[in-house]
Amino acid sequence: MNSFWKLVTSSVGKKLVMGITGTVLFAFVVVHMIGNLQVFLGRDAINHYAEFLQTNAELLWPTRIILAVCVVLHIFTGASLTLENRSKRGVAYDVKKIVGASLVSRTMFISGSIILCFIVYHILHFTTGTTNPEFMALKDAHGRHDVYRIILAGFANPWAAGFYVLGVGLLGFHLSHGVRALCETLGLRLENYAACIDRTAIVVAWILFLGFASVPVAVVLQVVR
Amino acid sequence: MKITVRVWRQKKAQSAGRFVEYPVEGANPDMSFLEMLDVLNEGLVKKGEEPVHFDSDCREGICGTCSCVINGEAHGPESRVTTCQTYMRSFKDGDTITVEPFRAKAFPLIKDLVVDRTAFDRIIQAGGFISVNTGAAPEANSIPVPKHASDLSMDAAACIGCGACVASCKNASASLFVAAKIAHLNLLPHGKPEKDRRALAMIQAMDAEGFGGCSVTGSCEAVCPKGIPISFISRMNRDYMVAALKMRE
Amino acid sequence: MKLDAKIPSGPLAQKWTNYKNEIRLVSPANKRKYDIIVVGTGLAGASAAASLGELGYNVKAFCLQDSPRRAHSVAAQGGINAAKNYRNDGDSVHRLFYDTIKGGDFRAREANVHRLAEVSLNVIDQATAQGVPFAREYSGYLATRSFGGAQVSRTFYARGQTGQQLLLGAYQALMCQVSAGTVKIFPRHEMLELVLVNNHAKGIVVRDLISGKISTVTADAVVLATGGYSNAFYLSTSGVASNVTASWRAHRKGALFANPCFTQIHPTCIPVSGDYQSKLTLMSESLRNDGRVWVPKNAGDKRSPEQIPDSDRDYYLERIYPAYGNLVPRDIASRAAKRVCDEGRGVGPGGLGVFLDFRDAIKRLGEPVIRERYANLFDMYHEITIENAYKTPMRIYPAIHYAMGGLWVDYNLMSNLPGLFVIGEANFSDHGANRLGASALMQGLADGYFVLPYTIGDYLARNEVKRPAADVPEAKLAETETAARLNKLLSIRGKRTPVEFHKQLGRILWDNCGMAREEAGLKKAMQAIAALREEFWQNVIVPGSHADLNMALERAGRVADFLELGELLCLDALERRESCGCHLRTEFQTPEGECLRNDTDYAYVAAWEFTGAGKPPQLHKEPLVYEEAHMAQRSYK
User: Fold this and answer.
1) Number of domains observed in the structure of chain A
2) Contact B170 A185 (CB under 8 A)
3) β-bridge mates for residue A25, sequence order
4) Is 0.90 topped by the overall pTM?
């Protein structure tokens, strides 16, 4: 156990934790987006999907627990790495030109922290209904949780919709580097694939952003009514 | 050319340092950056002042001795060269050039621009070798090495151990240096028997020396005078993961 | 003094085998009782220190760089020779031996060279096993290329970084021993004196370059692997820190200095661009495999090289030496370049350059092939000259590159001072009057891996003088003298910097003792150097103190020793009234301007003994007897 602990807490070990948890969270985000896009299939489709998720507690809760663990590990390890890494320079440079390092790669901790705030609000907003208790009471004709109307109500306010677009924008930004970094960390970004992975990461990030942002935008533009 | 050099002067590791500005007359675009510092130093020595101390030896970009962060960039403004291969034609007449030492806690400062990079040697001591005694080697052609593996290994082995990757990384990480050495040896059939041990030990040594971790920003490969890509860091992570899973330390 | 080379008896090809069978050995249990000092961590030093560590000796390895990996062997580009005959092109140990002897113009010791050719095979095996990524064919087997002075393809290489890769191999072996606890390394330490006890070398005085602390380290034997003295010429292809101090200090303590005038001029360096230049950059000789050397036929042809048609070009190496063409040995190629420049046909600023043209090779093989072979060299050329050698020919000119001369050693690689071993470029033994390309790496590693570990054991097993304590009177005296010398340098407070003296010395040597030498010039140079040395000790200025890192002080100490060596270099060149290899006396040449050797009077090693400051050194001669090689006028035509 001792040696396992040592292996996990080395700088590379911690990156592996970041990479593995990042992969799980990334997969969740992809599934989440696919779920969201069902709003365009109509009220029945998305409400059915929501019911499917919520009535299978033996799937839902393990997933939630795994996700929660991953979020905690991802945040905790990320914070720990950031703090450690910040202390390694000693005396700062008087003149520092940034070479090769993209803005996103240098600001992962900041973008991650803001995304964390966004997620907290998002859960309070849509999952628990803490900010809007009236959402939880909405039911459709089949007596199902009316996710479709919750979405309409949630994004009725253009400011809220705008905030969501910003939030998922930041998520896309984070993932444009995150996907590349997790491939790097998990030992996949080898010589022949490196360039391809880097491009794919950016494309995937854009797809996620557009996929997520399309819902609030569609509501505001009344494409979805 | 008329150049002003704004250079970090620090007498000893323990003493306080500061920037000092020196005008350099008679610089010439075909001069190397270090030859320009030589000119400055000749003037200082003539006046009985101590020259600006900086490391250099081969002056052809292969020994890895020279260092310096020039105008905020390790090894100066040109890519894929060392400080000794940086020429004054990269600067403009009248420029003020700021010269700082490589900064990293794991590279303690010795004097002026001279830093202590022996941490790299200690990382190599942890496992950056193939333990073959003199005389124990088999006939060289008895183990064929696929050309692509040999070429890739050579790409990694091109590392000159200068430490620019550390100097440039926001985390002062030595990942590129360590990854290059692990890849150089792990890619060859001769290095396979010690593959796992090497990855684990060298990464442990890297952490112990006080280098940071990798954030995949890629600034190391951008300043690396030998253009060593960070895909080798990915390879290192893979080797580490495999070794860790085997749980054999 | 009678020089005994201690060459083993028996036929040449059997000498090394017989020797190994007969030497005394140190038992494993006793090895750890012996301390060995190795100074220098280039190919020879690192390989020796690692191998001795593996055997179980306590090794202390000193280098002045911040890491052993940075020793100047790192800069060797082209390759390393070995008589593997992988190409089936007729190579053999004997042929490598003969090529080396002939390349050295019959001024090397036969037995040493044959041993070198024999162990060249093991060197390649060892380096490969250490993970040196030599170039390979698609089959996975090792590739070779041809090099100057040989008609077979026996040069192994790792792109254009062979020296770096071989050094990393040796350095890694050394680091392995450091972690095993058998070797302790002392980077940023400079040897400033040799300690003799009962006339045996038993220690060194070193200065910790960071703290300035001067201390004595004693041991059972001292190995010098401190490289060559090319930097006496100021501009050379050596690293700026390369120096003769360790060898020279040993020489002053009684070690003989052999053949100092045998300094190699390398034909393919980038021409000097200005007087601020701090060093010269070599372009690997391997470029001559594909590049063709030429100058315009007519002096004063001002057209750009691409515009000069073949009919107006003089491919002079191919013209004069059709058998070897562009692959003639270095001395021949250098002199030919000097001759065409003297005729006013040189190219580039000052007319000191010749073209090395890849046009035909690119036409024949395509640019990608040339790029794969030489990309790093072409890049380096571009960085320095901002010229694209794929489009326009390179300009090259000869420069001082290597010192064949060095401390005299016997077959055991031991100097005339018992216990003092000298390996690699620092000794004189294997290259005669001219070294062939890709042979320096071979010799450094052969000495370190496969020769010294045997021969040093033989000395230690005799155990004639025990290792002294670090505070014996001899050590204390050496320490005091060293400190006094540093203090003297610091206290002169004159007007001229050490670098100015160094530049002036280099100028004198290059003008009078460079590619062509003659009596009057050498005599003049000796006087000039003596006067310069006198002035140095009156008028040098060295700021700072010796109690911390002081690079001006380091430089001053090295220049002081170069100023003494310089005079000996000229004296040796003066006394050798013949031309051989790199040593061309203008009085002794064939009508075509080739070397005119005088085997009757000069087939000997000139070993100089230091007789005291200001006194003329004494010449000792080791006659060179050739049993196998037939001494002949070299011909590469």
Assistant:
1) 1
2) no
3) none
4) yes
